[in-house]
Amino acid sequence: MASILELNAEGKLRLADDLGDSPFTVITGHHLRRNTCRAWALYNEDGVRAAVVQQDELKAEPTAFGHSAPLIRDLLDHAEGWTCVNLDVNVASDLAKLLPGTGGESARLYGDLYFTLDRPPVRFAHPFVRPLALEDAGPIDTAPPDLRGAGFSSIEEMLRTGFVAGAVVDNSLAAIAHVSALTDTRAEIGVATHRDHRKQGLSTAAASLAVGQVIESGRVANWSCGEDNLASLRVAEKLGFEAYGRMAYVIPDRS
To answer: Cys staple from 174: which of 122, 153, 197, 236, with CB 3.0 to 4.6 Å?
Structure first.
């Protein structure tokens, strides 16, 4: 049996190439190429058989690749602090049986839906929504954690490297739409609205603007969310995103 390797920076670049660039891999590829994750892979003479990638900023939710649930289970033994794992929906049920919870029941499954858009989005405007730039770093930095964006080492890097739009009201961040993962051909969009400013159209307008910037850059926009996140699903539908496919979270009951 081939040995399990924790990958160094060079190995992560190789794994990113092996996984390719798709809606299912854009976030993982972003972190592999930036070396902002830990990663383990099992290779044989034909290439990678299974891999687990654990983002530095989201250790609880690693992503796994491969078609063998037992091999993925072996790789997960090397990751610390995880509470669920995201992987191919066709492998998830088999892995769930190998990850019983404290009560002996199989781990539960939770659907993760993926969408893409390769043309300009439906435009939604709002008087408070505009592109955000470096001078907006202050309001982002003082916003609640779920509004500060993700995927980059700092707010300044997110603003310089990605595409960010939002609403700043009374010098406070009310809503944000930003690129949370970026490759040469794709960009993952993340959206959040402060609880005091919901149901005002801010997220839709901000996402419309950020997605438009992604399309203008020549990339395909990607959107993903949990299967019961109705608010996110409604925004994606309004903007014109089309369904691509699904993965699944396997969640052991460890209570």
So the answer is: 197
Residues 58 and 8 in one domain: yes
pTM summary value: 0.93
Mean pLDDT, residues 142-163: 94
Residue 209 lies in a domain: yes
- Domain span at residue 200? 122-239
Instruction: For 58-106, write each residue's pLDDT tens digit.
Output: 999 999 999 999 999 999 999 999 999 999 999 999 999 998 765 667 7
CB 189 within 8 A of CB 220: no
Q: Which residues contact 195 (CB under 8 A, 6 or more apart)?
A: none
Counting Cα atoms < 13 Å in the Cβ hemisphere of 153 gives 4
How many other C-beta atoms are found inside a 10 Å radius of the C-beta of residue 19? 20
